[in-house]
Protein backbone atom coordinates (compact mmCIF):
# COMPACT_ATOMS: atom_id res chain seq x y z
CA UNK A 1 0.00 0.00 0.00
CA UNK A 2 1.40 3.42 -0.99
CA UNK A 3 2.34 5.78 1.81
CA UNK A 4 -0.21 8.51 2.56
CA UNK A 5 0.64 11.76 0.79
CA UNK A 6 0.74 14.50 3.42
CA UNK A 7 0.82 18.07 2.15
CA UNK A 8 1.38 21.49 3.66
CA UNK A 9 -0.66 24.56 2.79
CA UNK A 10 1.59 27.48 1.90
CA UNK A 11 0.94 31.17 1.35
CA UNK A 12 1.89 33.28 -1.66
CA UNK A 13 1.71 37.07 -1.56
CA UNK A 14 2.21 39.72 -4.18
CA UNK A 15 2.15 43.46 -3.39
CA UNK A 16 -0.45 44.23 -6.02
CA UNK A 17 -2.45 42.86 -8.91
CA UNK A 18 -3.46 44.98 -11.89
CA UNK A 19 -6.68 43.38 -13.11
CA UNK A 20 -7.65 43.14 -16.76
CA UNK A 21 -10.43 45.59 -15.90
CA UNK A 22 -7.82 48.19 -14.93
CA UNK A 23 -8.23 48.08 -11.14
CA UNK A 24 -5.36 47.64 -8.70
CA UNK A 25 -5.75 45.22 -5.79
CA UNK A 26 -3.08 45.54 -3.12
CA UNK A 27 -1.67 42.90 -0.79
CA UNK A 28 -2.97 39.94 -2.77
CA UNK A 29 -2.57 36.54 -1.14
CA UNK A 30 -3.52 33.01 -2.17
CA UNK A 31 -2.81 29.65 -0.64
CA UNK A 32 -1.07 26.91 -2.54
CA UNK A 33 0.35 23.45 -2.16
CA UNK A 34 2.89 21.43 -4.07
CA UNK A 35 3.51 17.73 -4.56
CA UNK A 36 6.78 16.21 -5.75
CA UNK A 37 10.02 18.04 -6.45
CA UNK A 38 11.10 20.48 -9.14
CA UNK A 39 13.93 18.87 -11.08
CA UNK A 40 17.28 20.47 -11.89
CA UNK A 41 16.18 21.31 -15.42
CA UNK A 42 13.00 22.95 -14.03
CA UNK A 43 10.95 21.33 -16.77
CA UNK A 44 8.70 18.91 -14.87
CA UNK A 45 6.15 21.33 -13.36
CA UNK A 46 2.40 20.80 -13.78
CA UNK A 47 -0.16 23.38 -12.67
CA UNK A 48 -3.57 22.17 -11.45
CA UNK A 49 -6.42 24.72 -11.33
CA UNK A 50 -9.53 24.00 -9.28
CA UNK A 51 -13.27 24.07 -9.92
CA UNK A 52 -15.86 26.70 -8.89
CA UNK A 53 -16.42 25.59 -5.30
CA UNK A 54 -13.04 23.94 -4.91
CA UNK A 55 -9.72 24.87 -3.35
CA UNK A 56 -6.07 24.16 -3.98
CA UNK A 57 -6.42 20.87 -2.10
CA UNK A 58 -6.10 18.58 -5.12
CA UNK A 59 -4.38 15.58 -3.51
CA UNK A 60 -3.21 14.05 -0.26
CA UNK A 61 -4.24 15.09 3.22
CA UNK A 62 -3.18 17.99 5.43
CA UNK A 63 -3.46 15.78 8.52
CA UNK A 64 -3.53 11.97 8.84
CA UNK A 65 -6.92 12.18 10.52
CA UNK A 66 -8.56 14.14 7.68
CA UNK A 67 -11.59 12.13 6.52
CA UNK A 68 -11.02 12.73 2.81
CA UNK A 69 -8.04 13.51 0.58
CA UNK A 70 -7.90 16.22 -2.08
CA UNK A 71 -10.46 16.10 -4.88
CA UNK A 72 -8.15 14.58 -7.54
CA UNK A 73 -6.23 12.28 -5.23
CA UNK A 74 -7.19 9.40 -7.53
CA UNK A 75 -4.77 10.68 -10.19
CA UNK A 76 -2.18 12.80 -8.32
CA UNK A 77 0.49 11.18 -6.20
CA UNK A 78 3.40 8.72 -6.27
CA UNK A 79 2.92 6.22 -9.09
CA UNK A 80 -0.41 7.71 -10.18
CA UNK A 81 -1.29 9.26 -13.54
CA UNK A 82 0.15 12.62 -12.47
CA UNK A 83 3.12 10.90 -10.89
CA UNK A 84 4.67 13.01 -8.16
CA UNK A 85 7.80 10.86 -8.34
CA UNK A 86 8.27 12.44 -11.80
CA UNK A 87 6.42 15.74 -11.76
CA UNK A 88 6.34 18.84 -9.58
CA UNK A 89 2.66 19.66 -9.16
CA UNK A 90 1.46 23.13 -8.13
CA UNK A 91 -2.11 23.92 -7.08
CA UNK A 92 -3.34 27.28 -5.77
CA UNK A 93 -6.48 28.77 -4.32
CA UNK A 94 -8.09 31.32 -6.63
CA UNK A 95 -8.87 34.92 -5.90
CA UNK A 96 -12.39 35.30 -4.42
CA UNK A 97 -12.26 31.64 -3.43
CA UNK A 98 -15.67 30.20 -2.62
CA UNK A 99 -14.42 28.78 0.70
CA UNK A 100 -13.16 32.06 2.13
CA UNK A 101 -13.99 30.99 5.71
CA UNK A 102 -12.15 27.67 5.54
CA UNK A 103 -9.03 27.85 7.76
CA UNK A 104 -7.17 25.83 5.11
CA UNK A 105 -7.88 28.43 2.42
CA UNK A 106 -5.96 31.63 1.71
CA UNK A 107 -7.62 34.04 -0.71
CA UNK A 108 -8.12 37.74 -1.35
CA UNK A 109 -11.64 38.89 -2.13
CA UNK A 110 -14.67 40.84 -0.88
CA UNK A 111 -14.39 39.28 2.60
CA UNK A 112 -10.78 40.47 2.94
CA UNK A 113 -9.93 43.71 4.75
CA UNK A 114 -9.38 46.66 2.47
CA UNK A 115 -5.89 48.01 3.34
CA UNK A 116 -7.27 51.54 3.04
CA UNK A 117 -10.02 51.08 5.64
CA UNK A 118 -9.28 47.91 7.59
CA UNK A 119 -12.87 46.80 6.93
CA UNK A 120 -14.02 44.07 4.52
CA UNK A 121 -14.18 45.24 0.92
CA UNK A 122 -17.70 43.95 0.30
CA UNK A 123 -18.89 45.00 -3.14
CA UNK A 124 -16.22 47.69 -3.35
CA UNK A 125 -13.83 44.88 -4.29
CA UNK A 126 -13.11 45.14 -8.03
CA UNK A 127 -14.76 42.69 -10.39
CA UNK A 128 -12.22 40.04 -11.32
CA UNK A 129 -11.90 37.69 -14.27
CA UNK A 130 -10.63 34.17 -14.78
CA UNK A 131 -7.63 35.85 -16.43
CA UNK A 132 -6.89 37.59 -13.12
CA UNK A 133 -6.85 34.23 -11.34
CA UNK A 134 -4.29 33.10 -13.89
CA UNK A 135 -2.20 36.26 -13.52
CA UNK A 136 -1.79 35.47 -9.82
CA UNK A 137 -0.91 31.87 -10.69
CA UNK A 138 1.69 33.16 -13.16
CA UNK A 139 3.29 35.23 -10.39
CA UNK A 140 3.28 32.19 -8.09
CA UNK A 141 4.83 29.95 -10.76
CA UNK A 142 7.53 32.55 -11.42
CA UNK A 143 8.29 32.80 -7.69
CA UNK A 144 8.90 29.05 -7.60
CA UNK A 145 11.51 29.28 -10.34
CA UNK A 146 9.38 27.59 -13.00
CA UNK A 147 9.82 29.06 -16.48
CA UNK A 148 7.80 26.55 -18.49
CA UNK A 149 4.93 24.27 -17.52
CA UNK A 150 4.89 20.71 -18.74
CA UNK A 151 1.11 20.90 -18.48
CA UNK A 152 -1.81 22.87 -17.10
CA UNK A 153 -4.93 20.97 -16.15
CA UNK A 154 -8.10 21.32 -14.11
CA UNK A 155 -11.82 20.53 -13.92
CA UNK A 156 -14.73 22.88 -14.74
CA UNK A 157 -13.64 26.42 -13.80
CA UNK A 158 -10.17 24.89 -13.57
CA UNK A 159 -10.59 23.92 -17.21
CA UNK A 160 -11.42 27.53 -18.09
CA UNK A 161 -8.23 28.58 -16.31
CA UNK A 162 -6.40 25.95 -18.34
CA UNK A 163 -7.67 27.46 -21.60
CA UNK A 164 -6.71 30.91 -20.33
CA UNK A 165 -3.15 29.77 -19.62
CA UNK A 166 -2.86 28.26 -23.11
CA UNK A 167 -4.26 31.38 -24.80
CA UNK A 168 -2.50 34.09 -22.79
CA UNK A 169 0.84 32.31 -22.30
CA UNK A 170 1.14 30.00 -25.32
CA UNK A 171 4.94 29.85 -25.10
CA UNK A 172 4.93 28.79 -21.45
CA UNK A 173 2.52 25.84 -21.64
CA UNK A 174 3.60 22.61 -23.34
CA UNK A 175 0.25 20.80 -23.16
CA UNK A 176 -3.19 21.22 -21.59
CA UNK A 177 -5.83 18.95 -20.08
CA UNK A 178 -9.13 20.83 -19.64
CA UNK A 179 -11.65 18.56 -17.89
CA UNK A 180 -15.47 19.05 -18.01
CA UNK A 181 -15.02 22.54 -19.46
CA UNK A 182 -15.59 24.42 -22.71
CA UNK A 183 -14.62 28.03 -23.43
CA UNK A 184 -17.33 28.45 -26.08
CA UNK A 185 -20.40 28.09 -23.85
CA UNK A 186 -23.46 30.17 -24.64
CA UNK A 187 -26.02 32.26 -22.77
CA UNK A 188 -27.71 29.18 -21.34
CA UNK A 189 -24.83 28.71 -18.88
CA UNK A 190 -24.65 32.45 -18.27
CA UNK A 191 -28.30 32.34 -17.19
CA UNK A 192 -27.77 29.25 -15.06
CA UNK A 193 -24.97 30.97 -13.17
CA UNK A 194 -27.36 33.81 -12.42
CA UNK A 195 -29.91 31.28 -11.17
CA UNK A 196 -27.29 29.81 -8.86
CA UNK A 197 -26.65 33.08 -7.07
CA UNK A 198 -30.06 34.76 -7.18
CA UNK A 199 -31.09 33.39 -3.74
CA UNK A 200 -28.20 35.34 -2.21
CA UNK A 201 -29.44 38.63 -3.65
CA UNK A 202 -32.98 37.89 -2.43
CA UNK A 203 -31.91 37.17 1.15
CA UNK A 204 -32.61 40.33 3.23
CA UNK A 205 -29.52 39.58 5.29
CA UNK A 206 -27.37 40.12 2.21
CA UNK A 207 -27.88 43.90 2.61
CA UNK A 208 -26.51 44.76 -0.82
CA UNK A 209 -23.29 42.90 0.00
CA UNK A 210 -22.68 44.86 3.21
CA UNK A 211 -23.59 42.07 5.66
CA UNK A 212 -21.70 41.67 8.91
CA UNK A 213 -19.46 38.67 9.46
CA UNK A 214 -21.68 37.52 12.33
CA UNK A 215 -24.92 37.93 10.33
CA UNK A 216 -24.30 36.57 6.82
CA UNK A 217 -27.10 35.70 4.37
CA UNK A 218 -26.94 32.04 5.31
CA UNK A 219 -30.36 31.06 3.99
CA UNK A 220 -29.64 32.59 0.59
CA UNK A 221 -26.19 31.04 0.42
CA UNK A 222 -27.50 27.60 1.28
CA UNK A 223 -30.24 27.88 -1.36
CA UNK A 224 -27.64 29.01 -3.91
CA UNK A 225 -25.49 26.02 -3.07
CA UNK A 226 -28.43 23.65 -3.49
CA UNK A 227 -29.14 25.07 -6.95
CA UNK A 228 -25.49 24.82 -7.95
CA UNK A 229 -25.18 21.24 -6.70
CA UNK A 230 -28.33 19.94 -8.36
CA UNK A 231 -27.43 21.55 -11.69
CA UNK A 232 -24.01 19.89 -11.60
CA UNK A 233 -25.44 16.42 -10.98
CA UNK A 234 -27.25 14.15 -13.41
CA UNK A 235 -30.73 12.84 -12.69
CA UNK A 236 -29.27 9.33 -12.29
CA UNK A 237 -27.58 10.49 -9.08
CA UNK A 238 -30.93 11.18 -7.44
CA UNK A 239 -31.83 7.48 -7.40
CA UNK A 240 -29.11 6.93 -4.81
CA UNK A 241 -30.16 10.00 -2.85
CA UNK A 242 -33.79 9.18 -2.20
CA UNK A 243 -35.31 9.42 -5.65
CA UNK A 244 -38.92 10.52 -5.28
CA UNK A 245 -39.28 9.13 -1.74
CA UNK A 246 -40.69 11.12 1.13
CA UNK A 247 -38.27 11.63 4.01
CA UNK A 248 -38.93 9.58 7.13
CA UNK A 249 -41.60 11.20 9.26
CA UNK A 250 -42.38 13.93 6.72
CA UNK A 251 -45.84 14.87 5.46
CA UNK A 252 -46.06 15.69 1.73
CA UNK A 253 -49.43 17.35 2.37
CA UNK A 254 -47.64 20.08 4.35
CA UNK A 255 -47.13 22.61 1.58
CA UNK A 256 -44.90 24.83 3.74
CA UNK A 257 -42.35 22.06 4.33
CA UNK A 258 -39.66 20.34 2.26
CA UNK A 259 -40.67 16.72 2.80
CA UNK A 260 -38.78 14.80 0.13
CA UNK A 261 -35.61 12.83 0.74
CA UNK A 262 -33.82 14.43 -2.19
CA UNK A 263 -34.54 17.89 -0.75
CA UNK A 264 -33.14 16.79 2.60
CA UNK A 265 -29.99 15.42 0.96
CA UNK A 266 -29.32 18.70 -0.82
CA UNK A 267 -30.10 20.72 2.30
CA UNK A 268 -27.74 18.67 4.42
CA UNK A 269 -24.89 18.96 1.92
CA UNK A 270 -25.33 22.73 1.67
CA UNK A 271 -25.63 23.20 5.43
CA UNK A 272 -22.37 21.33 6.04
CA UNK A 273 -20.41 23.45 3.56
CA UNK A 274 -22.04 26.87 3.92
CA UNK A 275 -20.14 27.92 7.08
CA UNK A 276 -16.89 27.71 5.11
CA UNK A 277 -18.21 29.71 2.14
CA UNK A 278 -18.82 33.42 1.60
CA UNK A 279 -21.88 34.76 -0.21
CA UNK A 280 -20.16 37.71 -1.90
CA UNK A 281 -17.34 35.46 -3.03
CA UNK A 282 -19.89 33.21 -4.76
CA UNK A 283 -21.32 36.22 -6.59
CA UNK A 284 -17.86 37.30 -7.75
CA UNK A 285 -17.01 33.79 -8.91
CA UNK A 286 -20.24 33.56 -10.90
CA UNK A 287 -19.49 36.86 -12.64
CA UNK A 288 -15.91 35.79 -13.42
CA UNK A 289 -17.28 32.70 -15.15
CA UNK A 290 -20.03 34.60 -16.96
CA UNK A 291 -17.54 37.08 -18.45
CA UNK A 292 -14.96 34.47 -19.41
CA UNK A 293 -12.96 34.91 -22.61
CA UNK A 294 -9.86 32.76 -23.16
CA UNK A 295 -6.78 34.88 -23.72
CA UNK A 296 -8.33 37.93 -22.05
CA UNK A 297 -5.10 38.32 -20.10
CA UNK A 298 -3.31 38.89 -23.42
CA UNK A 299 -5.94 41.24 -24.82
CA UNK A 300 -8.31 38.81 -26.57
CA UNK A 301 -11.80 40.29 -26.86
CA UNK A 302 -13.68 37.25 -28.17
CA UNK A 303 -13.69 33.51 -27.66
CA UNK A 304 -12.69 33.00 -31.31
CA UNK A 305 -9.73 35.33 -30.96
CA UNK A 306 -8.61 33.62 -27.75
CA UNK A 307 -8.85 30.08 -29.13
CA UNK A 308 -6.84 31.12 -32.17
CA UNK A 309 -3.92 31.90 -29.83
CA UNK A 310 -3.69 28.37 -28.44
CA UNK A 311 -0.82 26.20 -29.64
CA UNK A 312 -0.44 23.51 -26.96
CA UNK A 313 -1.49 19.93 -27.68
CA UNK A 314 -4.71 19.35 -25.78
CA UNK A 315 -6.47 16.41 -24.16
CA UNK A 316 -10.14 17.35 -23.66
CA UNK A 317 -11.88 15.15 -21.09
CA UNK A 318 -15.63 15.47 -20.71
CA UNK A 319 -18.77 13.75 -19.44
CA UNK A 320 -21.45 13.00 -22.07
CA UNK A 321 -24.17 13.55 -19.43
CA UNK A 322 -22.78 16.91 -18.26
CA UNK A 323 -25.54 19.51 -17.82
CA UNK A 324 -23.17 22.40 -17.00
CA UNK A 325 -20.64 22.33 -19.83
CA UNK A 326 -22.63 20.52 -22.48
CA UNK A 327 -20.78 17.84 -24.48
CA UNK A 328 -21.61 19.53 -27.79
CA UNK A 329 -19.71 22.60 -26.61
CA UNK A 330 -16.65 20.50 -25.80
CA UNK A 331 -16.81 18.73 -29.13
CA UNK A 332 -17.16 22.06 -30.94
CA UNK A 333 -14.16 23.46 -29.05
CA UNK A 334 -12.13 20.43 -30.13
CA UNK A 335 -13.07 21.07 -33.77
CA UNK A 336 -12.17 24.76 -33.51
CA UNK A 337 -8.75 23.97 -32.05
CA UNK A 338 -8.10 21.31 -34.70
CA UNK A 339 -9.02 23.89 -37.33
CA UNK A 340 -6.17 26.04 -35.99
CA UNK A 341 -3.75 23.13 -36.27
CA UNK A 342 -3.73 22.21 -32.57
CA UNK A 343 -3.32 18.46 -31.88
CA UNK A 344 -6.46 17.55 -29.91
CA UNK A 345 -7.51 14.30 -28.29
CA UNK A 346 -10.74 13.63 -26.42
CA UNK A 347 -11.74 11.19 -23.70
CA UNK A 348 -15.04 10.65 -21.91
CA UNK A 349 -16.05 9.85 -18.34
CA UNK A 350 -19.06 7.76 -17.34
CA UNK A 351 -21.10 7.54 -14.16
CA UNK A 352 -24.22 8.94 -12.49
CA UNK A 353 -22.75 12.27 -11.42
CA UNK A 354 -23.11 14.36 -14.58
CA UNK A 355 -20.72 17.32 -14.39
CA UNK A 356 -19.23 15.95 -11.17
CA UNK A 357 -17.98 12.89 -13.07
CA UNK A 358 -14.98 15.12 -13.82
CA UNK A 359 -14.12 14.90 -10.14
CA UNK A 360 -15.71 11.69 -8.90
CA UNK A 361 -14.76 9.52 -11.91
CA UNK A 362 -11.51 11.09 -13.09
CA UNK A 363 -9.68 7.80 -12.48
CA UNK A 364 -11.37 6.46 -15.64
CA UNK A 365 -9.08 8.75 -17.63
CA UNK A 366 -5.94 8.02 -15.61
CA UNK A 367 -4.20 5.98 -18.31
CA UNK A 368 -4.96 8.56 -21.02
CA UNK A 369 -3.65 11.34 -18.78
CA UNK A 370 -0.45 9.46 -17.92
CA UNK A 371 0.31 8.73 -21.58
CA UNK A 372 -0.49 12.28 -22.64
CA UNK A 373 1.84 13.76 -20.02
CA UNK A 374 4.66 11.38 -20.85
CA UNK A 375 4.50 11.72 -24.62
CA UNK A 376 7.23 13.89 -26.17
CA UNK A 377 5.98 17.10 -27.75
Q: Give the SSE string.
A: EEEEEEHEHEHHHHHHEHEHH
Provide the β-strand percentage band: 5-15%
Helix amount, in percent? 25-40%
Rg over C-alpha atoms, rounded to the nearest angstrom: 20 Å
How many helices does DSSP assign?
A: 11
Number of strands: 10
Main pleated-sheet profile: 8 strands, mixed
Domain count, please report it.
Answer: 2
Average pLDDT: 97
- Contiguous low-pLDDT stretches (5 residues minimum) are none
CATH superfamily of the largest domain: Alpha/Beta hydrolase fold, catalytic domain
Structural class: alpha/beta
CA-based shape:
globular
> Biggest sheet: strands side by side, in what order?
1-2-6-3-7-8-9-10
- The CATH architecture of the largest domain is 3-Layer(aba) Sandwich
Strand and helix map with partners:
Layout lengths: L9 E9 L5 E12 L9 E4 L27 E2 L4 E2 L4 E5 L37 H14 L7 E5 L1 H12 L7 E4 L7 H16 L15 H15 L2 H4 L22 H13 L5 H12 L12 H5 L6 E5 L8 H13 L4 E5 L8 H4 L5 H9 L3
Parallel strand pairs: 3-6, 3-7, 4-5, 7-8, 8-9, 9-10
Antiparallel strand pairs: 1-2, 2-6
Fill in the keyword field for this structure.
11 helices; alpha/beta; Rna Polymerase Sigma Factor, Chain: A; eight-stranded mixed β-sheet; Rossmann fold; about 375 residues
Structure commentary:
With 377 residues, this protein is an alpha/beta fold. The chain has 2 domains: 262 residues, Alpha/Beta hydrolase fold, catalytic domain (Rossmann fold), CATH 3.40.50; 92 residues, Orthogonal Bundle (Rna Polymerase Sigma Factor, Chain: A). Strands 1-2-6-3-7-8-9-10 form an 8-stranded mixed sheet, sandwiched between helices. Strands 4-5 form a two-stranded parallel sheet. A hairpin with a 5-residue loop joins strand 1 and strand 2.
